[in-house]
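Appendix B, record 7
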Amino acid sequence: MTKGKVLFIIAPENFRDEELLKPKKVLENKGYEVEIASIKTGKAIGMLGAEVEVKKNIYELSPEEYEAVVLVGGIGANVFFTDEKVHEFFRKAHEKGKVIAAICISPVTLAKAGLLKGKKATVWPSEAETIKELGAKYTGNDVEVDGKIVTANGPEAAEKFGETIAKLLEGE
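Structure tokens (predicted):
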């Protein structure tokens, strides 16, 4: 019996390997079922060469099915910055009270979706000004939590990011 499903959304190419693999492992070890989606199905390739089979298309999913939705970083993740369908998916997840998480440059996508206005957040340092301009209260911490939104600043924080998502899911 799983505790529920968590959706990881990755770029079709150049996602950051450990920002998917480390938190995925943490959550699976705690009993969550993890699914991976992108803007197209098939093989996705990480910046460091990890190959992942993507079986779900984000455009065909509903956030209601998941306890948490997680946006992985990496240089390819900028494909989501201007993707209104992905922004809407995260807004719906937020409305439904789901845990929302983004790591590396991906908090920019949450900020562009309007979800970080007035919220404490962190991001890969190159994007700090961007999220501030979009209304986030940038903290510079490795991992930041504000309500049910978790942000992290990059691959070094990947495991802590996964643990923080798990704690929120478990009501800690």
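Remarks on this record: Residues 5-169 form a domain with the Rossmann fold fold (CATH 3.40.50.880). The chain has a mean pLDDT of 97.
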